[in-house]
Structures are given as structure tokens and as C-alpha cells.
Amino acid sequence: MNKKFKKIPLKKLGGLNNSNYLFELQNKKYVLRVPSKDNDNNFYYENKILNLIKPLDISPEIIYHNKYTGVLISKYIKSNKFDINFYNSSTFINSIVNILFTLHNQKSNNYFNPFNEIYKNIEFLISINFNFNHDINILINKLKSLEKELTKKIHYGLCHNDLNTSNILYCDNLVYLIDFEFSGMGDIFFDLATISWFLKDTFQKELIETYFGHYNIDLQNKLNNYLFVVKLWNATWSYIKSLNSNSIYDYKLGANMILDDLFK
């Protein structure tokens, strides 16, 4: 490595599953992502996804990605800070639908099954005698029931599978997605449900209409059911993160709040 590049200042950015840093090199800004020690995602699959979407211009340009360690360097895109009002707007709905439609129409050999992931997470937590604040068996039974219903007809596509707001950038009226660690083929309703989490009812309806070109109660019901799956996946993931995280974010509290919501 060239010696003059060894002492590049790094500015800490946000991130739950990774450490992210902003740095400048030759008057250009980049983001360095370093996975946390407990991040056991398959970066080989992520590498394949990144190569697949590269020509689609739906993510900041990747400069470097290590398929073994997950260390990633990408060009920096300064995102506008959008609040809940912008999130619940036709402008945002149209932008996110356009980019998701492009992503969902791609094909990959990698698959993501949220039901299996949730069962695996719960099985692990039970094996270590994790102290749940809720009756986890009620949620398991509900999930099994939903799995039977939701797997009867799958709307297959290449999904991002982690569309929390920190993984969505908005700049110059365009949306970009980052962090494709969980990406794989699956039901596109998992992505749509994740987006709908903080949408008001009217904008959930608009999300469906914009994506499918029409609205009906079956699509709405499927969105609602997948929202349960999305929330439970996030909660069980957060419980596992709470076991050895040094973050100031209280993962267990966050998970308990999600389950409080599910039990309502």
C-alpha cells in the first residue's frame, strides 16, 4: 500500500450490523464498511448480488468488496434526511417502487426464506434459555399458520430483505439502496411489507396500486400478513444481536417493542 494513504482520516457513520466510515481520497468521498465480529452473513453471495446489480444503477458504485470478509468500499452519496412525512408521500412511493421493480425483476441462485430464518433464530434463543418477555409459542403458531397461507402463491423476485430506512438513500430525486447482505430470491412482499411498516393506511394502499397497477383486498391482506413476518424476523434478529453487542442501541428493548406491537 502506498504510504501516503496509510493515515486517511475516518469519520464514523451509523450502522447496526457493521461499522461504517466516511473518508476522502483525492477530493472524492467514499464509504468504508467493516462487518462486526458477530456478523456471520455469507459475503460470497453478497458479492454475487453486487455484481448482478452493478449495471442497474440502483446502488452507490462499489469500488471494492471482499467476498470473504465483507469489507466494502463504495462511492459516497449524500442522502437527504427524510422524515415520516416524506416517507408517507407519493414522491417517495413512486421512487421506491421504481427501484424495487428493477431489483425484483433480476434473478439469482441465492434464496432467502424468512420463515426458516425466524425458526432458526427462535430455536437458537430457546436453546440458550433466552428470557422472552412474551409467549413465544403463540408467535410460532401464528407464523406456521401464515407460512401455510403465504407459500401457496409466491410473487418471486430478487429481494433486498432489509429495507430499513438506514439502507435507503435519497438524493436528487433518486433512490439508492445499500447493504445487500440478506438479498436473495423470495417473495417480493417481504420488501413491500418492510416499506409499509411506517406507512399510513392510505399510503400502504398507494404502494400496492403503484407496484401492481391495481389494488384489491387480497393484495392488502398479503401485505398485512407479511408485515407480521417482517416484524418477527427483525425482533428475533435483534434478540440475537443483544447477546453480544457493544452498541449503545438497546437491541432487546427494540425487539420487545416490536413484539408488544405484534401482540396488540
TrEMBL record:
Superkingdom is Bacteria
- The Aminoglycoside phosphotransferase domain covers which part of the protein? 14-216
Q: Name one Pfam family in it.
A: APH
Query: Per its record, how is this protein called by name?
Result: Phosphotransferase
Q: Which organism is it from?
A: Clostridium gallinarum
Q: What is the organism lineage in this UniProt record?
A: Bacteria, Bacillati, Bacillota, Clostridia, Eubacteriales
